[in-house]
Amino acid sequence: MGKLLSKSKGSRRNCAYEAVSGTERNMAEETDSTCRLRQYSPIHTEAVTSLAAVHPGAVITGSKDQSVVWYDYDNGSEISRWNGHDKEVTKVAYAQHLNKVFSASRDRTVKSWQPGQSQPQHTFQGHELVVTALSLQPMDNSQMISGSRDNALRLWDLQTGDCLKESKVSRNLVTDISWAKNMDAVAQVGEDKELKIWDPRTLEVVHCFQRKQYIQTCCDLTEDGNYCLTCSNGFSGNGCEVTLWDMRAKSLVCEYKGHTETVGACMFLPGVADRSLIASVSSDCTVRIWDRETTECVGQEVIAGSGPLTSMVAYHDGSICVSSFNAGIHVFSIKEDTNGQLSLERRFQF
Question: Does the keyword Zinc apply (predicted)?
Answer without folding.
Answer: no
